[in-house]
From TrEMBL:
Record-level GO cellular component terms: cytoplasm
Designated name of the protein: D-alanine--D-alanine ligase
Binding-site residues for Mg(2+) 1, renumbered to this chain: D250, E263
Cofactor: Mg(2+); Mn(2+)
Biological process annotations from GO: cell wall organization; peptidoglycan biosynthetic process; regulation of cell shape
Positions of Mg(2+) 2 binding: E263, N265
Length: 303
């Protein structure tokens, strides 16, 4: 069996994806798999044909690598792949669609408003019921790309301009002060969680990928019953979107122990500073055994 580790891509998260992909590639090699590394560009289909892979291990972050595009192409080519399918990938990548699915399933989310670029540029734009502070984020990016916390009209204007660099929709979300907890899901079980304590204002792109800028608390320092609720909601969010394989669910716990689900990452980072490998260690997985399990889940789906 020839495994193709597909990483890179052309999204804003390309560099992180390449690091994740290299780590997965090295692990599969050490496990004895016949493995090839494929840097995904617009010629991805041709590269896959040339390498004659039997299964794809997807380590793409953002863009068409995570929104169902590559998944759809692989299905047309008849090649099994790790992680979620076309629909779940597309839903999880779209923050507005994700929140609507969560609300349907009674999964708590912070109050939010979707702003279209065309509305923002017109006189029809208003904040309505949302008040400062707010979190402004693009509807389609990951790794906290284009995300800002704003506390004034001026900051809002700048943050929306930044968010609209990545698409024509932005999400305005009520800023909730509290602990940021990430729950790892593998197959149909919650592995546990990690509490992140960034030294910056929030868990930004810089805080995520710069050593020393974030403290990681494993397991989270929260009440045991709240932790169980987080794990239950994390798994429920994973299932509500129809996800498969390994995901990471981003959540918040406020001072009154109210829990909110932010989003589901269908292709979590697999670098040395990534959260999923840290979380998986709580359930006895080292990096190589986690990679092997993710691959085996993909092959099991094909049986």
């Amino acid at each position: 069996m020839r495994v193709g580790v597909i990483a890179g891509g052309i999204s804003s998260e390309r560099e992180v994806s390449l690091k994740s992909g290299q780590a997965v590639f090295n692990a599969l090699r050490e496990l004895g798999f016949n493995t090839v590394f494929i840097d995904a560009g617009t010629d991805l289909c041709e590269k896959i044909k040339q390498e004659k892979i039997d299964v794809a291990f997807l380590v793409l972050h953002g863009g068409w690598g995570e929104n169902g595009g590559v998944q759809g192409m692989l299905e047309v080519m008849g090649i099994p792949y790790t992680g979620s399918g076309v629909l779940a990938s597309a839903l999880a990548m779209d923050k507005e669609a994700t929140k609507k699915i969560f609300l349907y399933h009674s999964i708590p989310v912070p109050p939010f408003k979707t702003v279209y670029k065309s509305d923002y540029l017109s006189s029809a734009f208003s904040l309505q019921s949302l008040s400062f502070p707010l979190v402004v984020k693009p509807a389609h990016e990951g790794s906290s790309v284009g995300v800002n916390i704003v506390r004034s009209e001026k900051e809002l204007d700048e943050a929306l301009k930044e968010a609209f660099k990545y698409g024509n929709r932005a999400i305005l979300e009520k800023y909730i002060e509290g602990k940021e907890i990430h729950i790892g899901v593998l197959g149909n079980r919650a592995l546990g969680g990690v509490e992140v304590r960034p030294k910056k204002e929030f868990y930004s792109y810089e805080a995520k990928y710069t050593k020393g800028l974030t403290d990681y608390i494993l397991p989270p320092e929260i009440d045991a019953s709240v932790y169980e609720k987080l794990k239950e909601l994390g798994l429920k969010a994973h299932q509500a979107l129809g996800c498969k394989g390994a995901t990471r669910v981003d959540m918040l716990v406020d001072e009154k122990n109210n829990v909110y689900v932010l989003e589901v990452n269908t292709i979590p980072g697999m670098t040395e500073t990534s959260l999923l490998p840290k979380i998986a260690s709580l359930s006895g997985y080292d990096f190589k055994s986690l990679v092997k399990e993710i691959l085996e889940l993909a092959l099991k789906d094909e049986e």
